[in-house]
Amino acid sequence: MNYWLMKSEPSVFGIDDLRRSPGRKTCWDGVRNYQARNMIRDDMRVGDQALFYHSSTEATGVAGIMEIVRAGFPDPSALEPDDPHYDPDSDPAAPRWFAVDVKFKEKFGRIVTLAELKRHRALSGMQLLKRGNRLSVMPVSASHWRLILDLARGR
DNA sequence: GCCAACGTTGGC
DNA sequence: GCCAACGTTGGC
């Protein structure tokens, strides 16, 4: 099983929105970066776990956990002209962008903040903490995953 | 709101 | 293929 971290701005869609979604599931669409696309399309598997990361907000950080419940499929929002993520250059016959379905698993009792993650030397290798990182989807190692869950649960 | 860092675009 | 200009991300 793989571990991931996926970013979203809570002012657009946060972990509470996911929890309130029908079936506690949503289509994680709108990713328009090729590196992230490749991971969504090629590497995400049903049953993989993902940290839900809140970006661009006060208290940026990890808010909880979700699970991949449908592996990569062509992102419908790329083909829908009314969608803000519409890509006019996208070809339905050769999909460029991909999405997964995710399901709410857990909301932490608190946000494990970015500042806090930065304080732990054991997490210094995290892609999230690398300078200039802007990926909205990235892998998380099993050891980093465990440590972050320990932090969330007060060890 | 500012700005650093990065990805993409397009002229050449 | 180079690279300047531009747009976006996201922390602060």
Give a written overview of the molecule.
- The protein has five helices and six strands.
- The chain has a single domain (3-152), classed as ph1033 like fold (Roll).
- Strands 2-5-4-3-1-6 form a six-stranded mixed sheet.
- The longest helix is centred in the last third of the chain and has 11 residues, at 142-152.
- By secondary structure, it is of the alpha+beta class.
- It is globular, with a radius of gyration of 15 Å.
- The chain is 24% helix and 32% strand.
Task: Please summarize what this structure is.
With 155 residues, the chain is α+β, with helices and mostly antiparallel strands. It contains 5 helices and 6 strands. A 6-stranded mixed beta sheet has the order 2-5-4-3-1-6.
- The CATH architecture category equals Roll
Measured on Cα atoms, how large is the radius of gyration?
A: 15 Å
Mean pLDDT: 94
| Main β-sheet description | 6 strands, mixed
Outline, from the CA principal axes? globular
Query: Which ranges are low-confidence, i.e. pLDDT below 50, for 5 or more consecutive residues?
Result: none
The share of residues in helices is 10-25%
CATH class wording: Alpha Beta
N- and C-termini, Cα separation: 23 Å
Give the helix tally: 5
Number of domains: 1
Topology summary:
Elements: E1 3-8, H1 10-13, H2 15-20, E2 25-28, H3 34-43, E3 49-54, E4 61-74, E5 98-113, H4 114-119, E6 137-140, H5 142-152
Parallel strand pairs: 1-3
Antiparallel strand pairs: 1-6, 2-5, 3-4, 4-5
The structure holds a DNA duplex (12 and 12 nucleotides).
